[in-house]
Design a protein that fits this description.
Two copies of one chain form a homodimer. With about 160 residues, chain A is an all-alpha fold. The first copy, chain A, folds into two domains: about 80 residues, Arc Repressor Mutant, subunit A; about 70 residues, no CATH class. In chain A, about 60% of the residues lie in helices and about 5% in strands. The first copy, chain A, has a two-stranded antiparallel ribbon. The longest helix of chain A is centred in the last third of the chain and has 16 residues. The first copy, chain A, starts with 7 loop residues before the first helix and ends with a helix.
Chain lengths: ~160, ~160
């Protein structure tokens, strides 16, 4: 893909600067949704089927996701690549901005609040994602799971 | 504006998730371009006039920029709001991703590299932008200007 300029901010915007790609990546990371149907039906924002399909294709071409070849009838399971996992700090920065400058709902804000207070949860989640999606063992396998802590905080607010 | 969900990442994506808004903000912050014509002619990515016009309007409505009322023939000068200045950490996170996962040109990469190495430059630049756009004096007025350091690094690479 020809880039509009040699600027690294532009390069990231060319890949991530649309209204849906970051949300698909968010749902893969925080909801562990790896199949088309889960991503479609679980979407808080109600992503449309044709948009989800085109975003997933673009993210594969851009090198942020991989999709194994499947035979007819098999459900494809998407995996994050290292470049996909590395969008988490961008997501955290976007979340910080949203926390400060937009309203939201407490149960959908609490994970962003936790990650802002405790940056080690961001590192921990990236290590977990590398294990889950790339098969790279976590450097600290006995440490508590960041994902479990984030999920527990979300569940507490939800009920 | 009705939000698609109460998630802070989504809220930020609704405001910043398009192929141009972050680049307009980048050029205001790093190039101190505050008039339509400068933003148009200086754009590395060749933004089109109608797109620039619509992005500026949207950023004003979203509360990231202000534009004073002007009488006929006067050139409007845009200012960043606090919410606009607060997108700098998002820009830095995008730049870090671009540095690691995309090619670029050295003169357009060097500022992102510097900000990654020295986070105090990001804080310093935000303080400068608050002074320049909002009239809030810098907390440390005798400290060297982050903008000057970033600009000097860019000029060195350019020549």
């Amino acid at each position: 893909m020809e880039q509009r300029s040699g600027c690294p901010i532009n390069a990231a915007v060319e890949t991530l600067g649309d209204p849906w790609s970051m949300l698909v990546l968010r749902d893969m990371m925080f909801g562990n949704r790896r199949h088309f149907r889960e991503l479609l039906t679980g979407s808080e924002e109600g992503i449309a089927s044709n948009i989800l399909s085109s975003r997933l294709k673009r993210l594969v071409v851009a090198g942020l996701l991989t999709k194994p070849d499947t035979t007819r009838g098999q459900r494809a399971m998407y995996s994050l690549t290292e470049a996909g996992i590395a969008t988490l700090p961008v997501m955290v920065a976007l979340g910080n901005w949203g926390l400060d400058h937009r309203d939201g709902t407490e149960e959908l804000r609490v994970r962003a609040e936790l990650m802002r207070e405790r940056p080690e949860l961001v590192e921990g989640l990236m290590d977990e994602l590398r294990e889950l999606h790339l098969g790279i063992p976590r450097p600290n396998p006995t440490a508590p799971l960041a994902s479990a802590e984030l999920q527990a905080a979300y569940e507490r607010m939800r009920h």
